[in-house]
Design goal:
Layout (H helix, E strand, L loop, with lengths): L1 H16 L10 H15 L4 E7 L5 E6 L5 H10 L3 H8 L3 E3 L6 H4 L3 H7 L4 E9 L2 E10 L7 H24 L12 H20 L3 H14 L4 H9 L11
Antiparallel strand pairs: 1-2, 1-5, 3-4, 4-5
Helix pairs in contact: 1-2, 1-7, 2-7, 3-9, 8-9, 8-10, 9-10
Length: 245
């Protein structure tokens, strides 16, 4: 127990001591951004990100250690595959110390995209408490290699702190609103994606699952974020029954 407490205290101090950047603010998003930056340094990583999910794959990218890693988080949802989604679905860490060893077959769209961006190893940790699942913490490395035992325990503690941060923020938020500092991104993007999914299902006469697959395929083909495509569908700037898809 003393060892576990030591890890919690140490990791919590790392997050608290992480300097804020302009625009971070004091809300949940700013706290998670500092957590990602602290995780990046503590885990010998090159980047880290936290995404919030709900059953069915609806999501919001809550924070990243640096802007370059936001597209890597977002791409998982456009493709419908990746370590974040696997960790969320399995409720277990997803550890890939060498991206070229099996990951290309596991994530045929996402793994090559990671490799092209210089990522060589990726690790994902589910954000969960009891039966509730909130999302995942992703850790990216530019070099092949496993996490050490201490790094693994630290990563689990970072994930626990992310859970506490999200739950505390949601507890303070108004009913139906996103946690303070997330600017309603998670709630808003989920709502838009659900709405767009329904509109595409009606336009094409397909199931909701097939509609989501078409939205993802369109986003990938156009090299756009899934949330942006959903927003355009809802605003009727993109219609899947008019030859634009």
């Amino acid at each position: 127990m003393a060892v576990v407490d030591e890890f919690i205290v140490r990791v919590t101090r790392l997050v608290a001591d992480e300097p804020a950047r302009p625009g971070d603010g004091h809300g949940v998003a700013g706290m998670l951004r500092r957590l990602c930056s602290a995780a990046e340094r503590a885990l010998s990583a090159n980047g880290a990100g936290v995404s919030v999910l709900a059953a069915g794959g609806m999501r919001g990218v809550a924070a990243v250690s640096a802007p370059a890693y936001e597209p890597l988080e977002e791409l998982q949802f456009s493709l419908g595959e990746g370590p974040c989604l696997d960790a969320f679905a399995s409720r277990q860490p997803v550890l890939v110390p060498d991206l070229s060893d099996g990951a290309m077959g596991r994530w045929p769209g996402y793994a090559p995209a990671l490799h092209d961006r210089g990522v060589r190893a990726v690790f994902a940790f589910p954000l969960q408490i009891g039966a509730a699942r909130l999302g995942a913490l992703d850790v990216f490395r530019d070099e092949v290699g496993s996490l050490t035992a201490d790094e693994f325990r630290n990563a689990l503690t970072f994930a626990d702190i992310a859970v506490t941060t999200l739950l505390d923020g949601q507890a303070r938020a108004a009913p139906g609103a996103a946690a303070d500092g997330l600017d309603d991104e998670v709630v808003g993007q989920r709502a838009e994606l659900f709405q767009a999914q329904g509109m595409v299902a009606v336009q094409l006469g397909v199931s909701l699952a097939d509609a989501l697959a078409r939205l993802r395929a369109y986003a990938y083909a156009e090299d756009r974020a899934l949330g942006e495509v959903a927003r355009d569908v809802v605003a009727r700037r993109v219609s899947f029954d008019s030859g634009q898809s």
